[in-house]
Amino acid sequence: MMSARVRLAVVTVATVFTMAVTASLGFWQLDRARQKTALQEQIDQRASLPAWQVDELLGASDPQQGVHRPVQLRGQWVNEASVFLDNRQMSARNGFILVTPLKLAGSERAVLVQRGWVPRDFTDRSRVPTIDTPSGEVQVEGRLAPPPGKLYELGEAGTGAIRQNIDLGTFAQETGLKLLTVSVQQTGASHEGLLREWPRAAVGVDKHHGYAFQWFGLCALAGLLFLWFQIISPRRKRISHGTDAR
After folding, report:
1. Among residues 118, 97, 91, 112, which one has the least CA distance to residue 163?
2. How large is the greatest C-alpha to C-alpha distance in the chain, in angstroms?
3. What was the pLDDT predicted at 36?
């Protein structure tokens, strides 16, 4: 049978190990929060920069380094290549995000524009909304963004006007367009039947502070439990037994 001294040693080692692990995880989450804070500052700084025009966007060595920066682009919609991305939410409502390539003025290059959100017809899931797409040269204001996010999809990527996801490389081959490696989230007032209440670009700093609080809380709990069960409670029992003996 394990002696009291050995048991205390085992519990002490386990407690120290638990506190060390949980404390290190807490500090790791704080470090992640500092990294995310720096990234958020970079995003906010880019968002406040002057808008890129077509020449500046095409002249960038890596357009992805301009993600979150505002843009003012001129070009023509390639309406026949429009795609409605399914199961996309905006303002807690489910529907489509309409994506249309914009062939940039004075260039053979094109960029995917996330034009906005539109509700779907749940009585006929194969029906796409009718969206007014201007012909001729247009000006589009927005912000550079990564390619449209991908949702989990069973099987191979779909084709047609309604799709779950869109892959830039595959879509470029399908349409014959020379697509940039970024997209544009069109901003401005809702029109053409499209809602443009895009969420603010954020990197989730608060969640890391929350995780750090949880890990530090577990660390403190382990220390308090050790203090109570291994030191305070036995001492109270010894004092109580000494009083009873008298």
Report:
1. 97
2. 102
3. 87
Helix (H) or strand (E) holding 40: helix 4-47
In this predicted model, what pLDDT tens digit does every residue of 29-60 receive, in sequence order? 999 999 988 888 888 888 889 999 999 999 98
Check residue 4 and give its pLDDT: 77
Distances 28 to 17, 170, 209, 212 between C-alpha atoms, Å = 16, 39, 10, 8
Pairing state of beta strands 93-104 and 70-77?
antiparallel
Each residue of 135-163: b (16+ CB within 10 Å) or e?
eeeeebebbbbebbeeeeeeeeeeeeebb
Q: For residue 240, what are the β-bridge partners? A: none
Q: Are 167 and 157 in contact (CB under 8 A)?
A: yes
Residue 6, pLDDT above cutoff 90: no
Instruction: Give the three-state DSSP class for 69.
Output: coil
Q: What is the pLDDT of residue 166?
A: 92
CA distance 124 to 112: 27
Residue found by looking up tokens 């589009």 in the block: 140
Tell me, what's the pLDDT at 145? 92
Q: Which residue has the tokens 């409502």?
A: 93
The residue with tokens 């030191």 is 231
